[in-house]
Amino acid sequence: MVAHDLEKGSRQQTTIRENPAASAGFDLEYDSYFISGYAPLFYSVSNGSAFALNTLPSLDENTQIPLSFIKNEASAYQIEMANAPYETDIFLTDLKENITVNLWGRSRL
Description:
Number of strands: 10
Radius of gyration: 14 Å
Strand content: 35-45%
Order of helices and strands: EEEEEEEEEE
Shape: globular
Low-confidence stretches: none
Mean pLDDT: 89
Distance between the termini: 18 Å
C-alpha cells in the first residue's frame, strides 16, 4: 500500500506479505523496520514496532494488521493498494474519520 502526498508529490510505501517461515514478530530475514523521511509516515505495526516491510506466517480473511499514518505538511492525501495476493475484500478503517473503505477484492471494479 502507498500513501501519497497529493500536494508535494511524495509517497510512502508499506508492504505486507506472507511467508510460512516468518514469525508474527521481527525476522531479520523477512522484515524491515520503518525509517521516516520527508513523505507522510505510513507503516504497519506489530508488537509495538513500526515496519516498512512486514512478513507474516499466514494471512487469511480474518487477519487484521494495524497501520499508522501521520501526515506531513500537506493537507491532501490518498492511500492506495497497488496489488494483493488474493481475491478477497481488504478493508482500511480510518479511526479518526470512522470510515471503512474496501481497497481490494471481490467488490473491486
